[in-house]
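Here we describe the complex-level prediction in full. Unlike the single-chain runs in Section 2.1, the two entities below were treated as one system.
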Amino acid sequence: MTWRRRYGALIRNAWLVDLQYRASIVLWIIWGVMEPTIALGIWWTIAGDGAVGGYARADFARYFFALMLVNQLTIAWDSWYLDGWIRGGELNYRLARPLHPAHEAVAENLAYKARSAGTILVVWLLVALVWPAVRLPLEPGRWALTALAVLLAAAMRFFISFTTGLLAFWTTRATAIMELHGGVSLFLAGRIAPLALLPPVVGNVAGLLWFPYMLAFPVELLTGAAHGPRALLARFAGQVVWLAVWVGAYRLAWSRGLRRYGAVGG
Amino acid sequence: MSSAIAADGLSKTFRVKVRDSGVAGALRALVRPRYRDVHAVRDVTFRIDPGEIVAFLGPNGAGKTTTLKMLAGLLYPTTGRVEVTGFVPWTGGPDFKRRIALVLGNRQQLVWDLPPEETFQLNRAIYDIPDAAYRERLAELVALLELGDVMQKPVRQLSLGERMKCELAAALLHHPPILFLDEPTLGLDVTAQEAIRRFLTQYRERHGATVLLTSHYMQDVTALASRVLIINRGRLLYDGALAALVARIARTKRIELVLGDGVTTGEALATFGAVKSFRFPNAVLEVPRDEAAATSARLLAALPIADLSIQDPPIEDVIRQAFTHGIEEDA
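The structure predicted for the assembly as a whole is:
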């Protein structure tokens, strides 16, 4: 009850604040739609009437619509919040409350995701009405597995973003590091192209890191590109392992960072 | 009686990066960073009993806020021990945090774009305050702080004084027994300052809270605190009653006079002591502390005087003297 009430109040406040900034919310959603739409446009042209790396036009359409949705469901902005809290001194009162600041960040995430992913889902359904290429078969088993993969990916991206934000305890460049991470994820997480289209060397490097698990895997699961019990098990295991690594990194950064904290400002 | 707050040998040293100016300096700092230690708090020891209001005094950078943040569990001390209501602050967790309120004058917890009531509701959930208790406490705080008119306005539209009142209300809804207040009247006009002081006095009388506050305004200290801790360059210089400090440091007393007809210049007064101000019929003389009574008697005998009072020097002067010359050597 306590936690439901706490999260309810935090999410409510996040939405009430959003209502004050309607225009910027619309811009962020447009941005969330634009990137995959532009990528789709490019691959649509390249693919022509044939296929690239096994992807025909309709496959690209499904991939980037799924990417649009999964990206909004897993994205995390926490490094920007945390950087501001730490460097601006707003972490102070948050540390004095009997609630770990991460809960406020999680609640912000949930509020943002419900709003933007909900909007994109509506957009997708409207487009699917007139464009059969982006329709997905109704397979409850696959949707359930996708939900699990999205949950793990969202948790991983949250811990990546939160932990990177905690670097503000040491450096004034925490958000720059997150920008760099975002740049790399453009290629290695499958934002600009399906991973199957990457040069083999790059694909192999990506496979050793967490990037494919934070976006490409749930997208491929949703579109049906990832299948087979062994392959799925291996990739779920990859998600769990990388999530554990980032949770460990967060715990280390939090405990060390607090010891170092200067609690700037009044 | 066990202390509400106990600090033993508390020290905090920050390691600060040193950087020369200009691009070359920035590049040098990048290649070979240099650091120096800043001793913000050095070996500070004190105890505060439950229900006491204690003021922390010191110039900017003296170590007041750093000490307050260590007591509230925000900062880890470099050395020393702290206990607040039986908890070690930085390991006390939620149970400790429910027992304190930390109000930082220039960093606010109110949600900027929403009316203050939304922050109150959030704190009700965070501190798990039962509905009936919440309604009762909010009504009390709204009445004491006169918040009725501001509850529905977005925080960004409130005046500084209104914001600070709301900040106090948000911080006290969970009825903490310990209050850490850092500059609670900073930047407020005289009326708002008085309202905050009146509220703190009433709150403490009603709930018996222990209060440790820092302030630059001596009126806050004289109106609220029974005891002061004076800190300068990280060291505790004085711990005791304000009146005792004045008696210890001030070597002089002020004799304030209302003169009768015939004394139109300050020259006649100069033989009795240093004339600090003269504007007929008012004059202020400064005389050695132990001669104040005798000088007053001589003045009354020698001059037409309508009124006379003996005062301690302004508290600001005493404190300034303490910071400039220390306390022991002036004793």
